[in-house]
Each structure stands twice: as structure tokens, then as C-alpha cells.
Amino acid sequence: MLSISNLNKTYFDGTKAISNISLQCPTGMVGLLGPNGAGKSTLMRTLACLQPPDSGSITFNGINVLQNPNALRSQLGYLPQSFGVYPHMSCRQLLWHIATLKKIDKRQAAQQIATLLSLTNLTQVANKPVTSYSGGMRQRFGIAQALLGDPKFIILDEPTAGLDPLERQRLHSLLVKISKQTLVLLSTHIVEDIENLCSRAAIMMQGKIVDSGEIAALIAPLSGKIWEMDRRPECGIVVSESYHFGKDRWRVYHSEIPHTNAIACEATLEDRYFFQLNKEPS
Ligand SMILES: Nc1ncnc2c1ncn2[C@@H]1O[C@H](COP(=O)(O)OP(=O)(O)OP(=O)(O)O)[C@@H](O)[C@H]1O
Question: Which family is annotated (predicted)?
Fold first, then answer.
């Protein structure tokens, strides 16, 4: 269980990136949703012990993370939004280097590296420098290094960025499997991925958690009140305006049918997220 209490972080220029955040995350996959600049990466970097908060506390399975960051680091896998790699080192060499830093026993490291290369579909190119990789291949290397050492807490900041649909699907299957015994904190702008993969989610805006919990419970207040229309509605609250086959499509929140042509829809996490975005002052 990850437990965050009253966490605050203000940068030197006065930006309050995290504002009194409290959150409980049990084992499983937890989604972190929020618009650009909401503070998601700041929160994840803080949880990964890469920057200290100004105040607050973090515990993971009984470890006081801020007092004992090394105890967390040995159980942590972290994929940042962007990362650098040593030039000229191959993917395999880099994974061995990281395995050494994580103090993984040599036999276990050999086994894990072979498995992770296969799971991330990098075995064929494992001896090429990571700097020569395409964006998606590089991202898959990032995922492999995050999973090295069998971590009990995995933080993934936009893990599917740059992945083609097949690789994205492979990663999803892997994450669902891993999260049966591991806490996976997943931040992505693809709301559908969070709805499909996670049992719980937290919505973050302007440095604050505005709602969190089981995804079914987050969506429940919109249930039976979401309608889809091909024209701008005259009543109700517009949740989102999008396109399908190039044609306008509005999703509307209203307690009763807003127009004879409106189609009743199952409420989604995306509806819930847009509903929240519309409520918050920007
Ligand atoms: N090192 C820094 N110094 C000053 N301000 C920062 C720093 N890092 C982030 N910020 C600011 O903190 C706020 C939160 O940024 P953060 O990167 O955590 O948001 P985010 O939710 O991850 O955004 P995105 O979805 O765009 O990645 C933003 O206003 C950002 O400009």
C-alpha cells in the first residue's frame, strides 16, 4: 500500500506544483489523470525520491520513503517521461549496467534481462546502441529497465508514448499481469487506457487531487445521464465535442433525454474527466 499524506511541493520560481495531496493506493494498477501542468510528473518524481517535497509524508508497505529513500529505491521501477542514455552502449549493456546498480545477483540479472528483452520485443536489436533506436524502441527499452529487479512499485509516466498499436497492446497485457502483485502507478493522457487497465484512478488538477477511487465509483454519478448527439444540444451540459468519421459528435450530460435524436450512452471515464475539466476554472 502506498500512502501519501499532505504532500506539498513549490518550485524555486514559486510554482506550486503539488498542493496538499493525500492519496492511498493499494496493490494493482492506479491511473493518474490530469491536464498538462497538473503536477503529475512532479508527483511521480517525488514518489521516486528524485526530488524532495516541501512537506508531507509518503509510506510504502511500511517504509517511510522520505526518511529511508534507499529502502524504496530497491523496490522501485520508474519510467520517466523522458530519459537520457549513455551513447554507444547497447541495450543489453545498459540493462546489465542498471542491473548492477540495482545490485541484482548475476544469474538472476541474466535471466531477467533475457525475459525482459523478449517481453519488450527487443531481443533482435539488443546489441545495438539505444541511441540508434526509434522512439518506440527506446520507449520499450525504458519499460524494460523499469521492470528490471522485479520491483514492487512501478511508476510509469506516459509509457505508451510513441508505441505502435501492437506494442501498446503487448505492454497493456504485460502491465495487467504484473499489477496482480505489484502497485503500478500509470500516468497517461489516453483516458481510455486508464479505464481499460486500472481498477482505481486519481484526477489531478492544478496540483490537487480533485477526485480518486474505484473507477466504477468515479463514473457512477454520470450513469444514465450521458447522451450522444450529432448537433449541439439546447439543454444539458456539453461534456465533450468530438468527431466520428469526420462528423460532429457531442456528448451531453442531462438527467433526461435532451433531444428526440439523442442516443443514451454508457458513461465513461473520459466523460467523467471532461466533466471535471469543465467544472474547474482554468
Ligand atoms: N523544475 C521545475 N521548475 C519550475 N517549475 C516546474 C518545474 N517542473 C515542473 N514545473 C511546473 O510545475 C507544474 C506542474 O508540472 P508537471 O510537469 O508536474 O505537470 P504534468 O501534469 O506532468 O504535465 P504534463 O502532462 O504536461 O507532463 C507546471 O506549472 C510546470 O511548469
Answer: Belongs to the ABC transporter superfamily.
140 with 208, same domain: the answer is: yes
CA of 125 relative to ligand 1 center, distance in Å: 34
Q: Are 119 and 174 in contact (CB under 8 A)?
A: yes
> Per-residue pLDDT for 160 more than 60?
yes
Question: Are 20 and 55 spatial neighbours (Cβ–Cβ below 8 Å)?
Answer: no
Index of the ligand 1 atom closest to the CA of residue 42: 18
**Measured distance CA(73)–CA(86) in Å, rounded:** 21
Q: What's the pTM?
A: 0.92
**DSSP-derived 3-state class of residue 128:** coil
- Is 120 in the same domain as 212? yes
Mean pLDDT score, 102-117: 95
**Which protein residues are within 6 Å of ligand 1, measured from CB?**
11, 13, 15, 17, 34, 36-42, 81
Q: Which atom of ligand 1 is nearest to the CA of 189?
A: 25
Range of the domain at 260: 220-279
Q: Give the pLDDT band of residue 100 (cuts 50, 70, 90).
A: very high
Where does a domain end: 218, 251, 269? Answer: 218
Which of 40, 79, 158, 203 best tests ligand 1's pocket when mutated (most atoms within 8 Å of CB)? 40
The CA distance from 89 to 81, in Å, is: 21
- Dihedral (Cα; 5, 29, 174, 66), 10-degree rounding: 10
